[in-house]
Write a structure and sequence with these properties.
single chain, four-stranded antiparallel beta sheet, 151 residues, 58% helix, 6 helices
């Protein structure tokens, strides 16, 4: 078999595998998304919210919180994020690195009557900040409703 045919079969095989993977993603559909949402607990929602905020993905963060109750918190964070993004590239890169390197650890969860109080720690270079979040069910889904920076 010559090199041209080998390359053809190799590329064809890769294309078939890629098509199969793509089809798997396409046919998951909204039912999988719904199942994931229903199975997502308040701790996971908080973790995803914090990750989205750390990445500056405010669109995703707004889907994970009660935007009415969290509007001021998100607006303050967005304002700071945009301010630092407008700084020189070294300052902006340093701030993004610090935010990305901050570790998030849930320390306590207390669930009462559909309201979940989640205590967590943010840590960077052995400096810790204790925080608390409140999560509530909204139309069957957990949403971050409040964040208190100091306990």
């Amino acid at each position: 078999m010559n090199n041209g045919k080998i390359k053809y079969y190799l590329i064809a095989g890769i294309a078939i595998i890629a098509a199969g993977v793509a089809a798997g993603f396409l046919f998951k559909g909204k039912s999988s998304d719904k199942e994931r949402t229903e199975a997502t607990g308040p701790e996971t929602v908080l973790e995803e919210f914090i990750s989205a905020m750390k990445a500056g993905d405010f669109t995703k963060a707004s889907t994970l919180c009660d935007t009415t109750m969290m509007e001021d918190y998100m607006e303050t964070y967005r304002h700071k994020w945009e301010y630092y993004a407008q700084q020189d590239s070294a300052t902006s890169a340093t701030i993004r690195s610090i935010v990305a390197d901050t570790k998030f650890l849930i320390t306590e969860v207390e669930n009462k009557d559909g309201v979940c109080l989640i205590s967590y720690t943010l840590e960077l270079d052995h400096n810790k900040k204790e925080c608390r979040a409140t999560a509530k069910k909204e139309k069957g889904e957990w949403k971050v409703a409040a964040i208190t920076d100091e306990i």
